[in-house]
TrEMBL record:
Keywords: Carboxypeptidase, Hydrolase, Metal-binding, Metalloprotease, Protease, Zinc. GO terms for biological process: proteolysis. InterPro entries: CARBOXYPEPT_ZN_2, Peptidase_M14, Peptidase_M14_domain. Its cofactor is Zn(2+). This is CPXM1 carboxypeptidase. GO terms for molecular function: metallocarboxypeptidase activity; zinc ion binding. The gene is Cpxm1.
Length: 216
């Protein structure tokens, strides 16, 4: 249908009414509470945070798709991943939830901020649409000022809620470094536009995957 006939929320929720992108357990709050009480790292790990007990209950609102992804990530020790979105041209990196509960925007870096910024930059600089000299803002934000990358919490965290919980969960629970790539200004490109979208992102995807070969 394209963006002209499709609202931004089309396809976002499952048949059961669950938003899969926001269905992972909130591990940030538990981590920050432990830090505030000087429990990290001796009593509370900051690199492999367990899933909260409430999230494992049979009546917990957890989609089968979410449980499948969790089991998949626990079975295979992924170290790098990308969460592909649409509707903007920018690469975001954790944390994507502001530490100050009531703030809608707040720079909230991880201890691995330098690595995340590098991973985001690798993708953004090789993306043809982002790196174009004719690049214009998709909507209101001009991400070219930041090299087309931004800390997720410093963009549009909704105060007191969760934005991209999958992004945080992978990092805090399984040590997988994940970024979110907003692939295109158009959230629902027409089929005729897909070859161009592929060309815009092909080299970025390859370079991003090559980063797994880098070590300390």
């Amino acid at each position: 249908q394209g963006s002209e006939l499709a609202g931004w929320a089309m396809g976002r929720w499952t048949y059961e009414g669950i938003d899969l992108n926001h269905n992972f357990a909130d591990l940030n709050t538990a981590l920050w509470d432990a830090e505030d009480n000087d429990l990290v790292p001796h009593e509370f790990p900051n690199h492999y945070i367990p899933i909260p007990e409430y999230y494992t209950f049979a009546n917990a609102t957890v989609a089968p798709e979410t449980r499948a992804v969790i089991a998949w990530m626990q079975r295979y020790p992924f170290v790098l991943s990308a969460n592909l979105h649409g509707g903007e041209l920018v690469v975001t990196y954790p944390f994507d939830m502001s530490r100050t509960y009531w703030k809608a925007q707040e720079l909230t870096p991880t201890p691995d901020d330098g690595v995340f910024r590098w991973l985001a930059t690798v993708y953004a600089t090789a993306n043809l649409a982002m790196a174009s000299g004719e690049r214009r803002p998709c909507h209101y934000d001009d991400f070219t000022r930041f090299g087309n990358i931004i800390n997720g919490a410093n963009w549009h965290t909704v105060a007191g809620s969760e934005w991209d919980t999958e992004l945080r969960w992978h990092y805090l629970h399984t040590n997988c470094f994940e970024i979110t790539v907003e692939l295109s200004c158009d959230k629902f490109p027409h089929a005729s536009e897909l070859p161009d979208e592929w060309e815009n992102n092909r080299e970025s995807l390859l370079l991003f995957m090559e980063q797994v070969a880098h070590g300390v």
